[in-house]
Amino acid sequence: MRLIGMMDSPYVRRVAISLKFMGVPFTHEPVSVLRQFDAFARINPVVKAPTLVTDEGVVLMDSTLILDHVERLVPLERRLTPTDIRDHARAQRIIGLALAACEKAVQILYERNLRPVEKQHQPWIDRVRGQLLAAYGLLERELGSGESWVFKSRPLQADITAAVAWRFTAGPLADVVAAADHPALSQFSGRAEALPEFLSSPLD
After folding, report:
1. How far apart (Å, rounded) are the C-alpha atoms in residues 46 and 139?
2. How far apart are CA 69 and CA 91, in angstroms?
3. In whole angstroms, what is the distance from residue 96 CA to residue 84 CA?
4. CATH number of 2-78
5. Under a CB-based contact definition with an 8 Å cutoff, are residues 21 and 197 in contact?
6. Per-domain residue ranges of the chain
7. 10-55 confidence digits (pLDDT tens)
8. How confident is the model at residue 85 (pLDDT cuts 50, 70, 90)?
């Protein structure tokens, strides 16, 4: 399998780390959707990261859809989704909050880095900022003390996505989402980032 995209995308990094936890071999091709648009388009004309090219040559996109497919390729004991329906619902809630936080963080970063200052719309920025803080506030409560994995025994997809989201946001948007206001997330992310699967997929 080929994973296309830069690790500075939380969605690409989420997939890379998850594949490693599931023991799925892949090659990573760090092609940028911004700086290497044409090269990316030759692999996936939609130019969406992450893109996964399966062993059969099928081009998949969207991190959640990619991971849903990959989970069907591995034995039950290596999957990252709980089988119990109540645990599954909680996992989906945590993943949803973390992905919402990623989405809002990306919107703010794009606004800051790509849109001219005179064209930035402050009411919209304030709205997105509120959504970002709401997502992380709820995620902070979901994680409790941050001293254990969500389902105790090992990191699953809820853990991976929450940790990746926080690491992506904590640096560039520290002025918006303060680590001091999210001690559980900070501790939780630090534990995750020390794992080999995270260390070998560093944020670019």
Report:
1. 31
2. 17
3. 18
4. 3.40.30.10
5. yes
6. 2-78, 85-195
7. 999 999 999 999 999 999 999 999 999 999 999 999 999 999 999 9
8. very high
Write the single-letter amino acid at 164: V
Strands 27-29 and 2-4, how do they pair? parallel
**β-bridge mates for residue 60, sequence order:** 52
Give the pTM. Answer: 0.95
Report CA-CA distances (Å) from 177 to 47, 81, 171, 184, 187: 29, 28, 9, 13, 15
Hey, what amino acid is at 17? I
Q: Is residue 192 a contact partner of residue 21, using CB atoms and an 8 Å limit?
A: no
Same fold, 2-78 and 85-195: no
Amino acid, res. 133:
L
Residues 186/166, Cβ–Cβ less than 8 Å: yes
Spatial contact of 105 and 173, defined as CB atoms under 8 Å apart = yes
CATH number for the domain whose boundaries are 85-195? 1.20.1050.10
Three-state secondary structure call for residue 87: helix
